[in-house]
Protein: N-acetyltransferase
Organism: Panacibacter microcysteis
Amino acid sequence: MVQIRNATTADLPAILEIYNDAILHTTAVYDYEPHTMAMRKEWFATKEQQGFPVFVAEDNEEIVGFSSIGPFRPWAGYRYTVENSIYVKDGQRGKGLGKLLMQPLIDAAKEMQLHTMVAGIDAENKLSIDFHKQFGFKEAGYLKQIGWKFDRWLDLVFMQLIL
């Protein structure tokens, strides 16, 4: 049975593995080089320092996904807006783990008295776009040819949920 819980530093190796797979094999992250454990530790420490949650999905003692929210942009006027991130381990996608990881993010954002949640999604990722729509996200912007990965230009869709 899958359990959703707050992440700990002990989960970072699994989180790093899932994130690096997304970097290397998907357009979910517009980055090229795998991250290091030092980078992931810094990321986690920053989340804790800023008071943003990181959740993991654990199935039979294996981390199969993670989610978090963080600042949308660094300027003070955006302090009530966050961007969400949800990553599911390769081979575990399509099993409803994303749904289990999304609701705690929305609940946490409301508890933090945030106003809006944004998702930046590769425009070809129809599954993620449809997934976000299930939670009430609406398309708020479409940026053409904003990213370059896998030898092609990528479009980015911004979706928004008013909390």
Summary: Helices lie at 12-25, 37-50, 97-111, 126-134.
